[in-house]
C-alpha cells in the first residue's frame, strides 16, 4: 500500500530520548557486483488514525533462540539487476541468498565507509526466490526497486545507505541466532561498511528476528539502532538492549490479529523496566485501526507519517561502547503531518 492510499489523522506526538550525535541520510540503488556487506520517555505512542491494512503473513508468536555460533563463509555473486544485486554466502554449509544495495557514487567516494541497514523479511518471504523480498508490500526493497535512491539529508549532511536483505530458507520458523550472527559478521567484514552505524530492522517474523539479535549480547554490541515492526521478542532478555544502550523505534497496529499488539508492548515495557540508571528509552508507535501491515507507514521514505522518518532517525544513531557515560539531553520528534 502506498502512502497516498491511506488517509491519516494524527492524534498524538512522538517523543524520543536523545542519544548519539546526529548523522544523516541514506542512499542509492543496488548496482553491480561487490562483496556483500551488513529512546526517560515511557515509549509514548505516536498515535494515528488510518485505514487498516493487512497481509496473509502468519509468523509464530514466539521465537526459538539458537545459541550456536556462525561458521565459515564464502560469497557467491550471481545475477545483477539495475537496482538490486543478488549475492549469496555460505555459512555452516548453508547457502544464504541476499539482495544488496550499494551507493551509486561508491566508486567515486574512495575508502569512505557507509551507514548500513540490514532488513529481515517476514515468514511469507522465506525460500529461494530473492524476488519475493522485492515484492514485500512497501518494504525498503520495494522502494528501492521503484527508484528511490535511499539518499537522505540529516543535519545538513547527505548520505546514502548500503542495504542488505538476506533470505531465510523455507525450513526455519524464525531467524536463528547462528544465521543472524553469520549475516551480521559477513556485513561487518565489508571494508566499506561503517561499523559504528549498522542498523537492523524487520517486519513480522523479521521483527522477532530483530529483537532476537539485539537481546543477544555478542550481536547487541555490534548494532547501532534497531526498528522492529509488527513483532515481539524475548522480554526476559530485554535488559540486554538497555545494557548496550541500543535505541529502539518499534511499530505496531492496534488491530493486528497476526502478531498481537500485546507482543510488541510487552517488549517495550520490559525495556523500560530495566534497572540501568541511564539508557535510551524506546519509542513505540501504535497505529490505531491498522492490522498486521504497519510497515507501509513505518518504512515510508517521505514525511507523510513521521518527521523525521525512520531512515533519517536511524542515521542519527551511532553505536556506543557500553562503558561510556550517556550524555544528557533529549531530542523531540516533530509530530507527523497529515497527508494531502
Automatic annotation (TrEMBL):
Keywords, in A-Z order: Signal
Coiled coil: none
Highest taxon in the source lineage: Bacteria
Record-linked Gene3D superfamilies: alpha/beta hydrolase
Protein name: Phospholipase
Amino acid at each position: 500500500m502506498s502512502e497516498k492510499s491511506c488517509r491519516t489523522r494524527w492524534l498524538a506526538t512522538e517523543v524520543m530520548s536523545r542519544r548519539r550525535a546526529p548523522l544523516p541520510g541514506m542512499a542509492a540503488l543496488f548496482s553491480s557486483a561487490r562483496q556483500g556487506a551488513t529512546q526517560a520517555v515511557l515509549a509514548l505512542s505516536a498515535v494515528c488514525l488510518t485505514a487498516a491494512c493487512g497481509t496473509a503473513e502468519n509468523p509464530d508468536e514466539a521465537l526459538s533462540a539458537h545459541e550456536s555460533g556462525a561458521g565459515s563463509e564464502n560469497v557467491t555473486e550471481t545475477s545483477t539487476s539495475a537496482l538490486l544485486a543478488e549475492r549469496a554466502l555460505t555459512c555452516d554449509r548453508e547457502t544464504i541468498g541476499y539482495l544488496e544495495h550499494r551507493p551509486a557514487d561508491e566508486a567515486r567516494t574512495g575508502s569512505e565507509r557507509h551507514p548500513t541497514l540490514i532488513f529481515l523479511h517476514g515468514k511469507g518471504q522465506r525460500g529461494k526466490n530473492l524476488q519475493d523480498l522485492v515484492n514485500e508490500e512497501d518494504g525498503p526493497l520495494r522502494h528501492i526497486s521503484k527508484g528511490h535512491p535511499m539518499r537522505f539529508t540529516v543535519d545538513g549532511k547527505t548520505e546514502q545507505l548500503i542495504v542488505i536483505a538476506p533470505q531465510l530458507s523455507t525450513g526455519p520458523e524464525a531467524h536463528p541466532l547462528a544465521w543472524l550472527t553469520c549475516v551480521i559478521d559477513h556485513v561487518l567484514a565489508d571494508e566499506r561498511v561503517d561499523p559504528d552505524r549498522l542498523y537492523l530492522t524487520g517486519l513480522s517474523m523479521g521483527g522477532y528476528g530483530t529483537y532476537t539479535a539485539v537481546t543477544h549480547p555478542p550481536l547487541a554490541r555490534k548494532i547501532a539502532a534497531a526498528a522492529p515492526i509488527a513483532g515481539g521478542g524475548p522480554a526476559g532478555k530485554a535488559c540486554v538492549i538497555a545494557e548496550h544502550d541500543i535505541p529502539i523505534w518499534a511499530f505496531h497496529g492496534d488491530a493486528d490479529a497476526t502478531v498481537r499488539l500485546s507482543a510488541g508492548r510487552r517488549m517495550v515495557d520490559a525495556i523500560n523496566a530495566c534497572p540501568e540508571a541511564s539508557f535510551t528509552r524506546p519509542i513505540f508507535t501504535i497505529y490505531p485501526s491498522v492490522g498486521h501491515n504497519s510497515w507501509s507507514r513505518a518504512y515510508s521514505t517521505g514525511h507523510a507519517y513521521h518527521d523525521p522518518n525512520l531512515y533519517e532517525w536511524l542515521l542519527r544513531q551511532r553505536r556506543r561502547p557500553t562503558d561510556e557515560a550517556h550524555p544528557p539531553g533529549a531530542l523531540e520528534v516533530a509530530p507527523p503531518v497529515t497527508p494531502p
